[in-house]
From TrEMBL:
Residues 35-290 form the Calcineurin-like phosphoesterase domain. One of its GO terms (molecular function) is hydrolase activity. This is Metallophosphoesterase. It comes from the Bacteria.
Length: 364
């Protein structure tokens, strides 16, 4: 059932474009088992650039809010890099707080993953002694606490893994910036922007949550993919191990997995999936700023394009977004998705708006 969204103020052209998208997609998702409104990589910041990131990251979040009110959406999702992390820490904290407040103000429950830009390390890289980088409490207080405070969930673990259930589907959102942070001689031990990782602790949390999925199929989401399509790890630490754990779940086996990365990331992970009957639907991620689909050992990885404007004339723009010729104050400025699961037909649908493919469909 849709919720009334007329009291949310968004830009006129966006309201017209998203209204047309809602009218098109509504009859295709009304009977689905689960519908998610998903955006990723908003890279919000105060300083303006007409061909690259800027304060429109917040606008894209508010526009997702409006769209969720027009459709039968069960959860709103942000897959990380809420902020660009390239400004003084007080400005980035302000931007981060504003984005989270939009989710808190909505009646739709939400999940927010951590991205590698969300600790403000991009700004700190340009400063002596890495000043301006966030301590872990910032993301914990501004993001994880509001996520955990919702009456309708999701569950959230010590390592930032989040999960919730429907009768037929379990959705698990991983923290691929699971980096133990310490300050050594006034400098951070890891640059989180450059360190995508999951620790053995989070892998154990994942193993325990997968083990109790019962008959449910499992949708995995995260900021970054565990694997890249060349069959290489997508994370600096334990991408391959994460992927192998998902393979073990599909095979319904039990055993021990060895996570790598020394005392910070490594350790033994015990798993027993013999009682589970479902499998992995897909692994959805952002981070790459493009769309691509590939399977590794039968597991589908589907990348979602960045919400943030990436104009074709900026040096850092991906080839995918350069071909889109994304322009400010047009529908190509943003990108977002409705992720819809039809459990009866065993189909995953990715409906896109803005600089995104209109429809991708996968069997599972």
């Amino acid at each position: 059932m849709t919720r009334h969204s007329r009291n949310i103020t968004i830009r006129r052209f966006a309201k017209q474009d998203l209204g047309r998208f809602a009218a098109w997609v509504r009859p295709q998702i009304v009977a689905a088992d689960l519908n998610l409104a998903v955006i990723t990589d908003t890279h919000d910041r105060t300083q303006w650039s007409r061909t690259f990131y800027g304060p429109n990251g917040l606008w894209h979040t508010q526009e997702q809010h409006w769209l969720a009110g027009e459709l039968p959406i069960d959860w709103r999702v942000h897959l990380g890099d809420l902020v660009d992390g390239s400004e003084p820490n007080f400005l980035t904290m302000w931007r981060l707080r504003n984005l989270v407040n939009d989710y808190v103000a909505d009646s739709v429950p939400f999940v927010i993953a951590k991205g590698n830009h969300d600790d403000n390390d991009k700004f700190a890289e340009r400063n002596a002694r890495f000043s301006g980088s966030f301590h872990p409490w910032v993301f914990n207080d501004l993001v994880y606490q509001p996520v955990a405070a919702q009456p309708a969930g999701p569950h959230i673990t010590r390592h930032g893994l989040q999960w919730f259930d429907t009768p037929t589907v379990r959705v698990i959102t991983l923290n691929t910036s699971d980096v133990p942070v310490r300050w050594q001689h006034g400098r951070k031990n890891y640059d989180v922007k450059k360190t995508l990782a999951v620790t053995a602790g989070q892998l154990q949390e994942l193993a325990d949550i997968l083990a109790t999925a019962a008959t449910r199929e499992v949708l995995i989401m995260a900021h970054a993919p565990a694997m890249v399509h060349q069959n290489r790890s997508g994370l600096r630490f334990n991408g391959q191990q994460l992927h192998e754990l998902l393979r073990a779940f599909n095979a319904h086996t039990a055993g021990t997995l060895t996570a790598a990365g020394g005392t910070d990331f490594g350790g033994l992970v015990q798993f027993d999936f013999t009682a589970a009957q479902g499998g992995i639907i897909a692994y959805l991620a952002g981070h790459w700023h493009e769309e691509v689909n590939y399977r590794v050992n039968g597991i589908l990885y589907a990348m979602l394009n960045c919400s943030a404007l990436m104009g074709r004339y900026h040096a850092l723009t991906s080839n995918y977004n350069r071909r889109q010729d994304r322009l400010l104050n047009t529908p190509s400025e943003y990108a977002g998705y409705i992720v819809s699961i039809d459990a009866q037909r065993r189909r995953l649908h990715l409906f896109g708006y803005g600089a995104a493919s209109r429809h991708r469909q996968f069997e599972y």
